[in-house]
Amino acid sequence: MADTRRSLPQLLGDARRWFDEGLLAAMATTGATPVSLPQLQLFAVLDEAGTTVSELARRMGVTRQTAHQAVHGLVAAGLLEQTEHPTSARQRLIRRTPEGAHAHQQAELVLERLEDRLAERIGREAADALRAALEAPWGDPPAPGQA
Amino acid sequence: MADTRRSLPQLLGDARRWFDEGLLAAMATTGATPVSLPQLQLFAVLDEAGTTVSELARRMGVTRQTAHQAVHGLVAAGLLEQTEHPTSARQRLIRRTPEGAHAHQQAELVLERLEDRLAERIGREAADALRAALEAPWGDPPAPGQA
DNA sequence: CCAATGTCAGCATAACTGACATCA
DNA sequence: CTGATGTCAGTTGTGCTGACATTG
Lengths: 147, 147
Known about the structure:
Two copies of one chain form a homodimer. The first copy, chain A, is mainly α. Chain A contains six helices and two strands, in the order ααααββαα. The first copy, chain A, has a single domain, classed as Winged helix-like DNA-binding domain superfamily/Winged helix DNA-binding domain (Arc Repressor Mutant, subunit A, Orthogonal Bundle), CATH 1.10.10. The longest helix of chain A has 25 residues, at 98-122. Chain A binds a DNA duplex through residues 36-38, 52-54, 62-66, 68-70, 72, 88-92.
């Protein structure tokens, strides 16, 4: 407590770790296919219809190559599959296998429970306010020159 | 928007990136000694009196070795120094050099400004609520067995 | 020819585990 | 002797950039 207060970045990091640890632990107990954190993140940006790797990369905010790597791992694990695009031969659709869909639902369920747990501990209003603040449009990080 | 809402971990990660990018950019323009992100994180857990590496590791939530590595880099950069512990010969105190103290203040100032900027964009109440929610005691991540 | 895509390969960073010497 | 500390070393994971073939 020597310091006035902990820095926001650090608090944000701790909060994220809280969720990540809970999620990983819960997924591990399901006994199913072990997934890494970035792979879970990839799941979060998937959609039902199927998507291309480039599109996934844009949604995750990483490069095509990074997304490709994550997809590759999940394909190898049998949770995703690549199918031919109906109209375009250069694009390949990424979709979940039945097992992948199951894991996906499992992960979303765990996340919901974690959020409920958090609400129990810090109060529903605080949890809602947290989500609201995070969902608000923050814009780009301020450039120092204009500060 | 196909999905109901983005996952909290992802939102938290984005928020953290927002601060990290702004902080790094601002620090870069000061022209001073270039610091990496983990090194900045290390600065955040320092105190005036001086601390041991093991203690810093505990505060950061990482292993002794990881903390040691970060300290080593900052010592090499001239921002930190290791001095002998007054009473114990096996412990070595980590303290800031004058230059390190300057960089530290600089970083804290930038962070304050970033938080103000955020308040301008999402509203003061939302920003305060965010900090309040993050500072609340979350406890340990829930174990899946008891869910 | 040009732009976007999917892919492979190499590199950098940052965390980890293992091991060991030192000292209370 | 035991435990905590500081340190060196190696390893793993995750992201990046560079390069190239393919296709619309």
